[in-house]
Amino acid sequence: MRYDLVVRSRRAVLGDGERPAAVAVRDGRIAAVLPYDAPPPEAAESADLGDVALLPGLVDTHVHVNEPGRTHWEGFATATRAAAAGGVTTIVDMPLNSLPPTVDVAALEVKRAAAAGQVHVDVGFWGGAIPGNAAGLRGLHEAGVYGFKCFLSPSGVDEFPPLDGAGLREAMREIASFGGLMVVHAEDPRLLAEPAGPTYPQFLASRPGEAEARAVEEVIAAVRETGARAHILHVSSAACLEPLAAARARGVPISAETCPHYLTLTAEEVAGPEYKCCPPIREAANRDALWDALAAGVLSCIVSDHSPSTPDLKVPDFAAAWGGVSSLQLGLSAIWTEASGRGYGLRDVVRWMAEGPAALAGLAGKGAIAPGNDADLVAFDTGADFVVDATALHHRNPITPYDGRTLTGVVRATWLRGRRVTGEKPLGALL
Question: Which GO terms describe its cellular component (predicted)?
């Protein structure tokens, strides 16, 4: 039987673990997973990675692309090129920081038109839930968004205001009526304050972990009242973990994610405004608790929350600097560096960075090496080190807190539906 592509690796990360295998591709999909040492099947193209690991393409469901409207911050061409270089083959774009925000069908059409012909990986879209648009959420759902993002505290941009408790429940009742998903930036605005000064400790004190925990409790209550599914975005605080675990144990349909910067960086080492994000990077002991929550399944996903800006917005004053970490190209390497040192394996990383996000968004055929799935594959050299050079990344602006850090794990190749992504010709699709 002839295939379009066969990729062999002694370290293929499959659903049942890591083992030698040959992945055979036909018409953009995985046609078979064969023994590594099986007689070579007939194929138009083949690659033997040896001891370089073969992973499914990662899925990143939390990316702020910002195009149109703020394309000078980031855009579809640069973001998806960076994604592919980092082993990410599918992203889901957040509805805010672009102009217009994706809060109605017309805005979704504008965003899809802006992305068309530019994307190097597959791209889906979240819709937005803001005050006054609950009646339009079904239309966005029918137009193809994967769920709805809302804020419970100010978003940082005026065109995407937060929901209060009544607005949250109104939107969630509507979302429950068609079986949709609400994804929530959960910080209680009553517990947030203006920083007392320009330093990082003052900024950190202005956004305490308790603000996240209280907001998570509010979302859990809203889920129980409305029947809607909900997902907590970018958990930074260990204070959220107990209410999340308790709700899940009771069968409440709520899940949660965290991000590479919360798992690999600490408040003690913050060196400049490129580290600023909301909610903030917290102390080392808090980071350890987040890793424990991943191992226990309380947190199910690791996604980037890639939220870039231009350099001029990253002023030295932490009270005034734009809050967002740029890391889309670096997430896999950053997580592998930390995870491997803590005793976790590639199977764990794939569960958190591919399978979990794909399941969250309902992306059938993504996130796993299995027959019938899209042939989205990554060659990942787990033993290779490199020093991050922000100016060499594909992100539009050379800003990242990882600049100058040594990370372990290099993406050697990325395939999207069986085609090698080179960054020259866009191969991605709009989902």
Answer: cytoplasm
Q: How far is CA 401 from CA 309, 314, 372, 387, in A?
A: 13, 11, 38, 12
Predicted confidence (pLDDT) per residue in 330-384, tens digit? 999 999 999 999 999 999 999 999 999 999 999 999 999 999 999 999 999 999 9
The span from the CA of 150 to the CA of 340, in Å, is 34
Rounded to whole angstroms, the Cα distance separating 98 from 75 reads 10
Q: Is 347 exposed, middle or buried (0-12, 13-18, 19+ CB in 10 A)?
A: middle
74 and 66 Cβ atoms separated by less than 8 Å: yes
Region label for 251, one of left (φ > 0), alpha (ψ between -120 and 50) or beta (otherwise)? left
CATH superfamily, with its number, for domain 58-361: Metal-dependent hydrolases (3.20.20.140)
Q: pTM of whole model > 0.85?
A: yes
Q: E strand or H helix at 219, and its extent?
A: helix 209-226
Tell me the CATH architecture of domain 3-54+374-382+405-420: Roll (2.30)
* CA–CA gap between residue 291 and residue 342 (Å, rounded): 9
233 band by pLDDT with thresholds 50, 70 and 90? very high
Locate the domains of the chain by residue range.
3-54+374-382+405-420, 58-361
Cβ neighbourhood burial of 132 (10 Å; 0-12, 13-18, 19+): exposed
